[in-house]
Amino acid sequence: MSQFLKSIFGASAALILSATASLGAEGWVIKDSPHSVTETADRLAAAVEESPAKLVARLDHQANAERVDLKMQPATVLFFGNPKVGTPIMQANPRAALDLPLRVLVWEEEGKVRVGYLSAEALKERYGVNGADEAFDAMAKALDGLTSKAVDEE
Q1: For the domain 22-151, what is the CATH code?
Q2: Where is the DUF302 domain (predicted)?
């Protein structure tokens, strides 16, 4: 946990944050999952289907690699979104459509299954969006809630 976060949130809040998710160097939020890549992706897809968002696509990179006789660790990307959230962001900056609908990566790395996505704040900064704060807040809340359901122990 960085000194910057500790100074902003205090030591106890920083410890809570680091226990649940980590923010990567490039604005990534990364959570560990106790489940396999497939089960974690299935759980995320189910959570999306139960939400106002719509699952748009699911891309299994490992399966695609195997089709051309290449090997790689499991990696699946789920694409999903809610036009009520994404549209105001694209209205503020149409280039944001490159990152919408949202993408969440579920992958295996060093024997651990991880779930990662770009934070709403990173997307806002990437496209220099001024405004659409309610949409970005809803996006952040949805991403955290949906990915937490995917990695829950139950």
Answers
A1: 3.30.310.70
A2: 59-118
Specify whether the CB–CB gap between 116 and 27 falls below 8 A: no
Global confidence as pTM: 0.83
Domain ranges of the chain: 22-151
Torsion angle, alpha carbons of 136, 138, 140, 142, to 10 = -150
Q: How many CA atoms lie within 13 A of 126 on its CB side?
A: 19
Residue 42: CB partners within 8 Å, gap ≥ 6? none
